[in-house]
Fold this protein.
Amino acid sequence: MSNLSKQLPGKEALVACRQMSFAIHNLLAPICRSNNVTPQQFYILSELSANPGQTVTQLCENTGILRTNFTMVCNKMIDRGLLEKTKNAMDKRSFTLQLTEDGQRLANQIETSLNQALEPLSESVSEQVFEDLQTGFHAMQELLSTLPDQTKARRMPLHSRRARARQGKKD
């Protein structure tokens, strides 16, 4: 057993991550429902707001949405006028996605709602705790990025079938 594996909290860390995932979902789901979007659609809105003009492959990697589900989610957003496709100038076989004005407006609206929902935390927790959390999150991303087949910590949720299959192929 390596020194690193002796130091990692293992099961405790996994339980804490799962609890954080539930807490995030419980915070995000009602905000998404009130704005008539799914959490997956919000992740796309948020990612394209921060980094416009991504290909489908990039968006799948950056949001953790499986490619098999992405087309249906994306098409619904295009039909609602939240996204638009543009031919990829670098590769005519693919296209990039960007937010429409309505999509950007909705992304901003949801972001504002999330900030308002999180406001009580900033009032009840010290600045030092927030700094410690941010340091911990960055350390976790760095650690996860060293795992086999993981070029980005946020690339894909660990629970996805595709991630398990890819990890199994490398063993």
User: Anything to note?
Assistant: Residues 38 and 136 are 28 Å apart (CA to CA).
